Amino acid sequence: MFIKNQQDFWSGLMFVGIGAFFALISWTKYDIGTAARMGPGYFPLALGVILFILGVIVTLGSLRGEHNEEHNVGKFDWDILFLVIGSIFLFGLMMDHLGLYVSIVALVIFSSLASHEFSLNIAIGNAIFLVLFAYFAFVKGLGLIFPLYPIAWAEWSTTAQIFIPIAVLIGLAVLVRKLKKGRA
């Protein structure tokens, strides 16, 4: 059987895997309950099954039709994956130690580096907008309590004292490389 649309094939398999994972975890680890009295596993199970079914439909659909070269999948870009997941990890690590404002700015700028059309001005604009949005929506609007400003270095956990500077240096190195590449 020949795959006619590689993008749909691989995304369908991804949906199948993620859907099966969440359905299995919610089925085995949580109480499902009934439709009238839902347990904590009911919603994740339903979403996992729906995602699994959608993945099967997309995967089977990728095997029909005409082959089109523009739907071929090239090499996987691991740098983008590490930048996005690393910036989310860094945000979670920085939140308690550097506060909401610095953490959001780092998240937006470092995750923006994953774009092939990176612009520092646009990333800074997005960061400012997101800081304002988070402040007005979560702090003022919902009354959630977040540390807004950095705390003293001596109060940081050992893990944070090691990983935050390393992650920031890696992010800054990627930023400098991206800016030099953009000027060349």
Concise summary:
This protein has 184 residues and is mainly alpha-helical.
Task: Give a structural overview.
The chain is an all-alpha fold. Helices cover 69% and strands 0% of the residues. It contains 5 helices and no strands. Helix 1 packs antiparallel against helix 2, helix 3 packs across helix 4 and helix 3 crosses helix 5. The radius of gyration is 21 Å and the shape is globular.
Q: Please identify the structural class as seen in this structure.
A: mainly alpha
Mean pLDDT: 87
Give the beta-strand count.
0
* Distinct helical segment count: 5
Instruction: Give unreliable regions as ranges.
Output: none
CA-to-CA gap between the ends?
Answer: 45 Å
Reported for the largest beta sheet, the result is: none
What is the alpha-carbon Rg in Å?
Answer: 21 Å
Shape, per Cα inertia axes: globular
Bin the strand percentage.
under 5%
Give helix and strand order, one letter per element, not per position: HHHHH
Helix content: 55-70%
Which features does this protein show?
mainly alpha, 184 residues, single chain
Give the arrangement of secondary structure elements:
Elements: H1 6-29, H2 42-61, H3 78-112, H4 120-141, H5 158-183
